[in-house]
Write a structure and sequence with these properties.
- The complex is a heterodimer of chains A (383) and B (151).
- Chain A contains 13 helices and eleven strands.
- By secondary structure, chain A is of the alpha/beta class.
- Chain A is globular.
- Chain B is mainly beta.
- Chain B has two domains: 48 residues, no CATH class; 87 residues.
- In chain B, 8% of the residues lie in helices and 31% in strands.
- In chain B, strands 5-4-3-6-7 form a five-stranded antiparallel beta sheet, covered by helices on one side. Chain B has a two-stranded antiparallel ribbon with strand order 1-2.
- Chain B is globular.
- The chains are: A alpha/beta (383), B mainly beta (151).
- Chains A and B meet through helix 4, helix 5 and strand 5 of A and strand 3 and strand 5 of B.
- Strand 5 of chain A pairs antiparallel with strand 3 of chain B.
- The complex binds zinc ion.
- Zinc ion binds next to loops of chain B.
């Protein structure tokens, strides 16, 4: 008999710290605070935790976390690579572990001090890892430069414009304006601000880039059976997928036959194959938005529209609350906090509990995605 | 992960790995060469130990015409490493090779081999524009750069 993860586990607790450009606490302390908040939210004792999952880029190891929070014996731990591409896979790995009896209470987290911490491109002594020799000497230095290259080609091929990218930035900002925890709460954006802002990597301007944030988030995963006894309505992990396309090459997927169909396409095929519903049944989506062009690319990859139609999809308020597909209802990486996409997971849980600050009425299904452009992951949540 | 000492006023030098080293050795001779499978003949980039099509570990380096077209480009603005900030906004282009369009090399469009990274008028940057390779030496390494074909 084939095992299935479908609805076998649920997220039963979420926690987060404040989000700010600068927080006084260490990454380790922020991690512990977020994890303890998530366990308290679930009503589960820290001593019951026996599984951890995080990112390879996470500085605080599970050894440190387990010791600090007073976890019991841990029987599963996992770290996922590729920065923001790993966010949803943390939940996926824990769901697999819990569903197959390797553990009973799993905690996934991300703690990051990017607001006050160093930026790699400010460090003159260090060349970033491969494919550095093919890109860095020519001044393709930052993720914004690498994604800007794809964005320009996308705009050229499909007639996408800066107004389409603005639609994305605006939708995220509007939701952040409704979310008191967001870094951009009460900081409205206008089209004029967007169009006149400084360029970071032309065609991408300041507002096409995610925020630099200090903060941490965590969530708790248990079996569906156990979830029924927890404090809050369970949010079931319906389908999970990771995606590393054939011949893919990191963030600079330029050597693939088709650089504009990235890891999202690969993850999506598996995600939908395992699901009882399709893109047309998704009530709300949290789509990884380190940069605005990732949204049209992901809308295409996850099947919300056809190839080349992602930019047009953003028109007419489609991404706004009340639109065809409300996205990033906490404000996303562009306007709530950029914590490698973990806030998108917790926001998905809030929507399905009915407690989002930009609640989609009766939301029962939510897609959450991880970084597009890098090997990625995605989860489908349902209430 | 490779580290390289780089003074604040210098551009980053390529740090070749074992697979990529021949590319830079040929570049030092003024030749643009791409790794090819010695068994099935297919080109591959970036270089790697074996052929993804026939799994042969035998490879050769095939000389390219050095001509191509701009597939896309960006113009980075600060914050950037100091040496790049000093020339910003500059261009980074992605060139698809005329001989093998699926092979795309990152580079800079310049008015002459040794010209600064911002030497070309941004108004002349255009997807599809024809370019050809030139080589320049910097810090003991030879790197390819690109010039617009006269039209
Ligand atoms: Zn071969």
């Amino acid at each position: 008999m084939a095992a299935t993860l479908k609805d076998a586990t649920a997220i039963v607790g979420i926690g987060q710290t404040a989000f700010a450009k600068q927080l006084p606490q260490s990454e380790k302390e922020l991690a512990c605070r977020a994890i303890l908040a998530a366990l308290a939210d679930a009503g589960i004792e820290p001593s019951e935790v026996d599984a951890f999952a995080s990112y390879t880029m996470e500085e605080t190891d599970e050894v440190e976390v387990a010791k600090a929070i007073g976890a019991g014996d841990v029987t599963f731990f996992s770290k996922i690579g590729y920065g923001g591409g790993g966010s949803c896979a943390t939940v996926g790995h824990l769901a697999s572990a819990v569903a197959t009896g390797q553990a009973t209470v799993g905690v996934a987290w991300r703690s990051r001090k990017r607001g006050s911490g160093p930026r790699p491109w400010k460090n003159t002594a260090v060349q970033l890892p491969t494919p550095g020799q093919w890109t860095r000497p020519f001044g393709l230095l930052r993720p914004a430069d690498e994604i800007g290259m794809l964005a320009r080609r996308y705009m050229h091929e499909y007639g996408a414009t800066r107004d389409h990218l603005f639609n994305v930035a605006m939708a995220c900002r509007n939701r952040a304006n409704e979310n008191p925890a967001a870094m951009m709460y009460e900081r409205p954006l206008t089209r004029e601000m967007y169009m006149t802002s400084r360029m970071i990597s032309d065609p991408l301007c300041l507002f096409d880039n995610c925020l630099e944030t200090d903060g941490a988030l965590a969530c708790v995963i248990v079996s569906a059976e156990r979830a029924r006894d927890c404090r809050h309505k369970p949010v079931y992990v319906h389908s999970v997928a990771q995606g590393l396309p054939s011949q893919h090459h990191g963030m600079v997927n330029y050597w693939n036959d088709d650089p504009l169909s990235g890891p999202a396409w690969t993850a999506a095929r598996h995600l939908w194959k395992q699901a009882d519903f399709g893109p047309q049944d998704v009530d709300v989506a949290q789509i990884y938005d380190a940069f605005t062009p990732l949204i049209p690319l992901s809308l295409e990859g996850y099947g919300f529209c056809g190839r080349g139609e992602g930019a047009a999809f953003t028109e007419g308020g489609a991404l706004e609350r009340g639109g065809r597909l409300p996205i990033n209802t906490g404000g996303g990486g562009l306007s709530e906090a950029y914590v490698h996409g973990f806030n998108l997971i917790n926001e998905g849980v809030k929507q399905l509990r009915g407690i989002s600050t930009a609640q989609v009425p009766d939301a029962a299904t939510c897609l959450v995605t991880a970084g597009e452009g890098v090997p990625t992951s995605a989860i489908l949540l349902r209430s | 992960m490779t580290t390289t000492p780089a003074a604040a006023d210098e551009l980053l030098l390529p740090v070749p790995d074992e697979d990529g080293a021949p590319f830079w050795e040929y570049a030092a001779r003024g030749e643009l060469r791409v790794q090819a499978c010695a068994a099935c003949g297919r080109l591959r980039f970036p270089p790697r130990p074996c052929c993804p099509h026939c799994r042969s570990f035998d490879s050769e380096w095939r000389r390219m015409s050095g001509r191509g077209r701009i597939w896309s480009y960006v113009r980075p603005h600060p914050p950037l490493l100091p040496a790049y900030a000093a020339q910003a906004p500059y261009n980074v282009i992605l060139v698809e090779l005329a001989d093998a369009p699926h092979i795309r090399l990152a580079g800079n469009l310049v008015t002459s081999a040794d010209a600064p990274l911002d030497s070309v008028d941004p108004a002349r940057l255009r997807i599809g524009a024809r370019v050809h390779v030139v080589f320049t030496e910097t810090g003991g390494m030879t790197v390819p750069r690109w010039m617009l074909e006269k039209s």
